[in-house]
Design brief:
Elements (H helix, E strand, L loop, with lengths): L24 H17 L4 H12 L3 H17 L4 H11 L5 H14 L5 H16 L5 H10 L8 H16 L1 H4 L3 H15 L8 H17 L1 H5 L4 H9 L3 H12 L1 H4 L6 H5 L5 H6 L3 H12 L7 H11 L8 H11 L5 H4 L6 H10 L4 H12 L12 H14 L4 H17 L5 H17 L7 H4 L6 H10 L1 H4 L6 H20 L44 H4 L4 H12 L3 H16 L8 H11 L15 H7 L5 H9 L5 H16 L3 H11 L9 H8 L5 H15 L1 H13 L1
Helix pairs in contact: 1-3, 3-4, 5-7, 7-10, 10-11, 10-13, 20-22, 20-23, 22-24, 24-25, 25-26, 25-28, 32-33, 32-34, 34-37, 37-39, 39-40, 40-41
C-alpha cells in the first residue's frame, strides 16, 4: 500500500521553522493559550470580554497563566490588536507582569534568532510599553535585549534593534536613571557599538549613541564607574569623536568635573571589570558556542567548530571588531576548573591564537592584542585573577614553535605598551606587567620564562628589548643537567611533530603538552599527544588558593573547613552552612564564580569514577547521593520556585556547571535516585535555563553525551526516566 503523501506542516505565527523542524514546544503552548483567550472572548463586546477574562484568572494560578500568556502571544502576533490586548493584560494580570517578563526573557535568550519579523517588532514594542508603565523588572528585560545587539554586525535587523532599544532609553531617560546597573550596561553597550557605526549612512545613529553615552557619563559618572577598567578601553576607541574627546580630556586632566568622588583615571584602571559587562557584548548564541568549545570540544578536533563560528560571526570586514569582545570574554568570563585545564579539552589559549591568526585588519589586530593584555597592565595579585592573565602567556609559549611570528608580535606588544599606553602612568603599567609575570611564575603557569624571552627564534632586537625591560626573567634557570638534556630532546620531538602539522590552532591532531610532561621520569620521550587523565590525579591535593581571596571572610572560613577534613559527614554539614550563607539576603553574588571554582576543585574526586552503585538497592542509591555537592540539589528540591533564594541557588549551580560540566548528569542522577527528589525531575529544566547554554534541549544533549563518555551504565539507568519526562 502506497504511503499517503506527507502533508505540509502548518507554519506557526511566532517562530521561523522548516519542514524538518519539530514543532516548538514553547510555540505550541503559547498557541494553546491564545486558543483559551479566544474561546473566552469570541462574540463578546470589549467590556464583556474583559469581565470574562477577569473571572477566569480568579479561578486559579493555571488559568491566570494561560490568559496572561494568551494575551502576550496576541500582542506578538496580531499588531492590530496589540494595544487592546496589552490594556487587557494590565487589567487582568495579578503578579506584576512577572509571568510576561519571564516569558520575554526566555524568548530573548532561547528563541530570538528564530522569531519571525512581526513578532520581533512587536516584542520590542511590548518592552517599550512595559517600560512606559514602569513595570518592576523591565530593566532586566532591557538588559537582556541589549545583549541581543551583536557587535561587528551592521545588518539591517541588528541596526534596527540597536536603534529601537536606544530610542526606548532616550524616551524614558528618567526611568533609566533609577537603575544604576542599567545605566552602566547601556553605556558599556553603546560605547562599544559606536565603533561599528562609522559609515556615512550610519552617522545619524552614531550621533544618537554618542549623545546618549555623553549624557549618561556626565550626569551619572559614579554609576558608570562600576564598569571598571574596560570603560577606559572603550572610551579610547572613540576618543577622536569631538564630544568624546572633550570627555576624554576631563577624564585625564579634570576628573572632579565628572564627579567629586572620582580621583582620576587610575581609579578606573585598577578596578577589574565584572564578568557581567564582558558577557553582555556576546549574544546568547555566541556565548553558547564559545562555552561549548571550551567545555566539550577536544583539542585537535576544533577546526569544524571554528570554521562554523568564522562563517557565522567573523566573515565580514566590520566583524573584525568582535574579536576584542571574544578575547575579553574568554579571558574574563571563561574560567575552566582544574580538571578541565588538565584534560584534553580545547584550551583557551588555542581559541585566542586562532582569533589572532585569522585577524585580517591591522587596527583589529592591535585592539585584539590590547584586549588580551588588558588585565596585565594594572594587575594586582590581591584583587585580580590568574585566570585573566594566563591565556596571553600560554598563547606566546605554545606559539613559539609553530607560529613564532605570533609569539614575537605579542612579546613586542607587551614591551611597547609599557611606555606607550599612557606615559604619565608608565611606572604603574611596568609594575602591573611585572606583577603579572611574577604571579605566572609563582602559580607555575610556566616553570620559567627565559626559554620564552631569550629564544633563538626571536630576532636580536626583540631579545635585547626583553632583556632590557625584564632582566629578572631573562636569566636561564639552573636545574640539574639531565633536565636540560630532556628539554633538548623534547624540543627535537616538538619540531618533528610540527613538521607534519602546520599549526596548533586548528589542525586535526593536537600536538602539545606541558613542558614537565614531555618526557617521563627516566628521560624517555613520550608520545606527543594528550592522554586520558590517569587515576593518579586523584591524589593531587585540591588547590583553591587562586580564588580564596575573592571570598568574604565567613565564606572563606567555611571553604577552608571543607578543605581540611576528609570526613564526608562533616563536609556535608559545612556545605549546608555554605548553602545557608548563599541564601542570606546580603550574599554578594560577585563571589559566586570564585566559590564555584573552589567547590569544583574541592569536590573533584566526587566527579571521578562511577556514580551508580554496583548493586542497585534503595539503601545503596540513597547512600550514593549523600555527598557534599548533593546538598545544593537537595536544597533546590525542597524550595518553591517562586522563593527568592531558589534563583540565587540555581545561579550558583549554573556557575558550578561552567567549572565542572559533569554536574549536569549528576543532577539528573540525584533527581532519579534520591527519595527526596521524587517527582521533581522538572527541576532539571529550570537548571538548564539558568545555565549559559540557556535551553533544555542543548543542555540535555550535552549532559547525556558527557554521561555516555564517562559511564555508559549510568546512561542506561537515566535514559528511561528522561524519556518518560
Amino acid at each position: 500500500m502506497e504511503p499517503a503523501p506527507a502533508k505540509s506542516k502548518p507554519q506557526g505565527r511566532l517562530l521561523v521553522s522548516t519542514q524538518l523542524d519539530a514543532k516548538d514546544e514553547l510555540e505550541e503552548r503559547l498557541e494553546r493559550c491564545v486558543g483559551t483567550v479566544q474561546a473566552l472572548t469570541n462574540g463578546l463586546s470589549e467590556r464583556e470580554a474583559n469581565d470574562a477574562l477577569t473571572a477566569n484568572v480568579c479561578k486559579g494560578q493555571q488559568q491566570h497563566e494561560e490568559v496572561c500568556l494568551g494575551l502576550f502571544t496576541l500582542v506578538l502576533t496580531e499588531p492590530a490588536q496589540a494595544q487592546r490586548c496589552y490594556r487587557d493584560l494590565t487589567l487582568v494580570n495579578r503578579d506584576g507582569m512577572n509571568i510576561v517578563l519571564v516569558k520575554i526573557n526566555q524568548i530573548l535568550m532561547e528563541k530570538f534568532l528564530k522569531l519571525q519579523d512581526i513578532p520581533r517588532t512587536q516584542l520590542v514594542w511590548l518592552v517599550r510599553e512595559l517600560v512606559k508603565s514602569g513595570v518592576i523588572g523591565a530593566d532586566g528585560v532591557i538588559m537582556t535585549l541589549l545583549k541581543q545587539i551583536a557587535g561587528g554586525d551592521i545588518s539591517t535587523k541588528n541596526l534596527w534593534l540597536a536603534e529601537s532599544v536606544l530610542d526606548i532609553l532616550l524616551e524614558q531617560k528618567e526611568w533609566v536613571l533609577k537603575s544604576g546597573m542599567l545605566i552602566a550596561m547601556s553605556v558599556y553597550t553603546y560605547l562599544r557599538l559606536i565603533v561599528d557605526h562609522g559609515a556615512p549612512n550610519l552617522l545619524p545613529l552614531r550621533q544618537k549613541e554618542v549623545d546618549f553615552c555623553i549624557s549618561m557619563l556626565r550626569e551619572k559618572f559614579m554609576e558608570c564607574l562600576i564598569i571598571g577598567r574596560d570603560l577606559v578601553r572603550l572610551l579610547q576607541n572613540v576618543a577622536r569623536i569631538p564630544e568624546m574627546e572633550l570627555l576624554w580630556r576631563d577624564l585625564l586632566h579634570n576628573p572632579q568635573v565628572l564627579s567629586p568622588q572620582f580621583t582620576g583615571i587610575l581609579q578606573l584602571l585598577t578596578a577589574r571589570t565584572s564578568r557581567k559587562f564582558l558577557a553582555c557584548r556576546l549574544t546568547p548564541d555566541m556565548e553558547t558556542k564559545l562555552l561549548f568549545m571550551t567545555s566539550r570540544v577536544r583539542f585537535g578536533q576544533q577546526k569544524r567548530y571554528q570554521d562554523w563560528f568564522q562563517r557565522q560571526y567573523l566573515s565580514t570586514a566590520e566583524s573584525q571588531s568582535l574579536r576584542c569582545d571574544l578575547i575579553r570574554y574568554i579571558c574574563g568570563v571563561v574560567h575552566p576548573s582544574n580538571e578541565v585545564l588538565s584534560s584534553d579539552i580545547l584550551p583557551r589559549w588555542a581559541i585566542i591564537g586562532w582569533l589572532l591568526t585569522t585577524c585580517t585588519s591591522n587596527v583589529a589586530a592591535s585592539n585584539a592584542k590590547l584586549a588580551l593584555f588588558y588585565d596585565w597592565l594594572f594587575f594586582n595579585p590581591e584583587k585580580d585573577s590568574i585566570m585573566n592573565i594566563e591565556p596571553a602567556i600560554l598563547v606566546m609559549h605554545h606559539s613559539m614553535k609553530p607560529h613564532p611570528a605570533i609569539t614575537a608580535t605579542l612579546l613586542d606588544f607587551m614591551c611597547r605598551i609599557i611606555p606607550h599606553f599612557f606615559p604619565p602612568l608608565e611606572s604603574q603599567v611596568r609594575q602591573g606587567v611585572f606583577n603579572s609575570l611574577n604571579f605566572i611564575m609563582e602559580k607555575r603557569v610556566l616553570a620559567h620564562l627565559a626559554p620564552l624571552f631569550d629564544n633563538p627564534k626571536l630576532d636580536r632586537e626583540l631579545r635585547s628589548m626583553l632583556r632590557e625591560r625584564f632582566p629578572e626573567f631573562c636569566s636561564p634557570p639552573s636545574p640539574p643537567t639531565e633536565v636540560k638534556m630532556e628539554e633538548a630532546g623534547s624540543m627535537e620531538m616538538d619540531n618533528h611533530v610540527l613538521d607534519k602539522e602546520e599549526g596548533c590552532y586548528d589542525h586535526t591532531e593536537a600536538a602539545f603538552s606541558d613542558d614537565e610532561d614531555e618526557v617521563n621520569n627516566k628521560g624517555k620521550k613520550r608520545e606527543f599527544r594528550f592522554h586520558p587523565i590517569k587515576e593518579a590525579v586523584v591524589e593531587e591535593p585540591a588547590d583553591i588558593t587562586p580564588w580564596l581571596d575573592q571570598l568574604d571572610d565567613t565564606m572563606k572560613e567555611k571553604v577552608q573547613q571543607i578543605q581540611k577534613t576528609s570526613d564526608t559527614e562533616t563536609q556535608c554539614e559545612v556545605m549546608q552552612e555554605i548553602v545557608d550563607l548563599i541564601l542570606e539576603d546580603d550574599f554578594d553574588t560577585e563571589q559566586m564564580s570564585a566559590l564555584a571554582s573552589c567547590l569544583a576543585e574541592l569536590f573533584k574526586d566526587h566527579f571521578r569514577g562511577e556514580v551508580l552503585p554496583e548493586e542497585i538497592t534503595e539503601e545503596s542509591l540513597e547512600e550514593s547521593v549523600c555527598k557534599p555537592v548533593c546538598l545544593i540539589f537537595r536544597n533546590l528540591v525542597t524550595m518553591q520556585e517562586d522563593n527568592s533564594g531558589f534563583s540565587v541557588l540555581l545561579d550558583m549551580l549554573a556557575e558550578l556547571y561552567q567549572k565542572q560540566p559533569k554536574i549536569g548528569y549528576h543532577l539528573l542522577y540525584y533527581l532519579k535516585a534520591s527519595k527526596a527528589a521524587n517527582g521533581k525531575m522538572m527541576l532539571y529544566e529550570s537548571f538548564a535555563q539558568a545555565t549559559a547554554l540557556g535551553d533544555l534541549h542543548t543542555c540535555l544533549m550535552m549532559d547525556m553525551k558527557a554521561c555516555q563518555e564517562d559511564d555508559v551504565r549510568l546512561l542506561c539507568y537515566l535514559t528511561p526516566s528522561i524519556y518518560s519526562e
